[in-house]
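Researcher: I'm comparing several assemblies side by side, and this is the next one on my list. It has 807 residues spread over two chains. Same procedure as the others: predict the full complex and return the structure.
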Amino acid sequence: MAQISARAADLPSGRTAGQGAGRGLARWLASDRVFPKIPYVLVEGLIIVTILIPFILTIYISLLRWRANRPFETATFSGLSNYEVVLTDSLFWASVGRTFYFAGTAVAVELVVGFVLAMLVHQCTRSKKLYTTIILVPMMIVPIVVGYNFSMIYVDSGPLNQLLAPFLEPFGIDPRIRWLSHPVAAQFAIIIADIWQWTSLTFLIFLSGFSALPAQLINAARVMGATPWQIFWRIQFPLLKPAILIAVIIRSMEALKMFDPVVLLTFGGPGTSTQTVAYFLWEQVWVFNKFSFGAAASIVLLVMFSVFIYFGIYLLVSQRATVDRRAA
Amino acid sequence: MRRLSWILCGLLIISMQQALADPVADRAIAGAKAYIKAKNLKEPKLTVLLSSLYNNSFPDFAKKWEELTGVKMEIVPLGYTDIPAKIMQEGVAKTGVYDIFNDFPYTTPDAAGAKVVIPLDDYAKKYKPDFSGVADGLQFQQYYDGKLYIMVNDGDHLILALRKDLVENPQVRADYKAKFNKDLGCPDTMAEWAQQAAFFQTKAGDTRWGIKFEQPLYGALGYRSVNFSYRHFPVYMKGLLFDKDMKPRIGTPDGIAAIKAFAASVDHMPKDIQGWGTPQIYPFWASGQAYSAMSFPSIIGFANGNPKSVIKGKQIPCIIPGNVIDGKLVRRAPQAAGTGYMVSAYSKNPELAYLFIQWFTSPTVGDQAVAHPRGFWDPYRDEHVKNKAINDRFGADMVKTTIENSKYAASLLMIEGNYEYFKILDNNLADVMNKNISAEEAAKRIEAGWNRVTNDVGRDTQIRIWRKGVESGIYLDKF
């Protein structure tokens, strides 16, 4: 004990100085001038490290001539030539077009099915929670499991073709549809897998939209003799427009990045018939090592998708303004 | 079955202990011990990026190496499709996390170009590995730009398997002889294989040769999906893919004929074949629904060993059919999947990593790997024909044919950017198989695509490496 006291006595000046500096820093951080800025600095710092620096690096790499099968030290400045290559690459544009086609079809079906399911479940008086849970299950399954399951379902002699056989055979149509190897059927296979998994999300958005509808407004309409169709078309549907727009934007943003089902089901094939732009980019960068090309293509896509998303947000804001005006 | 596997594993471990009579393996062990002592390494460790296919067999050898040398082996298993990207990522990140990369030889050009793997010639000169009894096409694909980069322990070149029960059926033989005036058996040429495939193609419900076919019998099986077609296409191509100046030969009459023959072959395969890989092809073959299969040698072992197989003992392994060029039969068996081992440029102990590779690919330990009951390594050395454990594992017929076939083993394209060349070929072959474009149009597109890659990577470099590869004999054909 005496030894410990003696050692403590050996260090008084250093400890006091350290403690003093620590207290000074704490006081400075707690001051009215600094404290409110701490969250700002942390968040902005995080944005700079995780978004801004990689973004600047991506732009920098897009201006170089560099394939990763050569050391980075050998890269040379090439100006905008990568952008020229991207903008004149027919495979790039084909994959962009295909992505919009996949996303457009999948999201449209997801919206309709999700909306109808939400409407039906909202009207349920019993087992509402059970139905909701069941419908939300696909969204909670890991995409790789979904991909594996669908690859089994789509096999030539698999359950889907066996289910379809009684309906196709009477019309003389071969029931052995090549879901994963026919260029057109493979596209539908991917769209169906996406719809199966992500209809849950649109359902959830619409169900919360239905739950938030003002009951008194609907009751009042009912009392005044409005038919169920009139209630839906004149009251519920207009009030649900913001929810619809949110569902469109969220799902479109995700669907435009479609990658998992493509890799898991077809690897972009047969040929390039199921190559989405996300898959195209992955292949160019991680299989062909064309990092500069990939960086330039990413920037081009960023601009394109930003315009698309900006348009969506503009619609959302103007829709909200219209609802607010009507409410006022 | 499981008990038998464990017994075989036990025997394998015992035989591994007796394997120290191999001077190649001995040099590696002694070299490792000396290296550890000289560098004063306290807890030496090597990390291997391993194809997950080998995750049930490779650890037995890693454990043995650890017992012999004290070097701890850490294994990072990964799907083989993801390994090339992981290697290239290491080339950019330079973390030094891995000491050894396990992948196909045709990953070497990009990895060597990025300087993420190192040439092994100096170590080889010092420790003297043994490549005796390995056919030229397999041996020389270990080299890139004249330097040793990868050491291969797997003879995964394509072979042809036929249905013995059908070939030996007297009625079938008589029918075939009457139709083609030729005895039925292993086809010598690709045209003959196509002819046999057409002959055997049978609809479900038909009765032929006294056999009622409840399910359809397909004339042929082969890999026709994305990421696989390029591995089979060289069998159809008469000669090299490029000329001496890297001008693609795909647009020549030989190239167009090869595209047509490749695409036409799907007429005698299951309709869904363009979506199939090994997990579909192997069980389908074992289910007895096809007459022939061009595949990796292990398909025969699979169909003999799978409990649900209906063709156990009913297979004939054949050497690869060829093409007649200038009146001479020329066979080419692409080395479609065999893997090897490279040393990372960022390894802290590259010499130690090399020594493990030399030990693992040495004649005795390499043979034990090939014989491993849960391994996916195929026979490749001449003496494997005489190795009892290997013959017991694969069947003497199959080993004999595989070794004979290895004389025709030819490497896939070993130049930088090869994955892009392969993909351009695959995409256009798919379009022809789906009748979206003609063979001539596909040839034009492939030629344009290949020229674009050649220019992008650097034409002069590509020409130099291509010529060197051809001269070394990895493609068997010469200019």
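Model: For your comparison table: Residues 2-153+339-377 of chain B form a domain with the D-Maltodextrin-Binding Protein; domain 2 fold (CATH 3.40.190.10).
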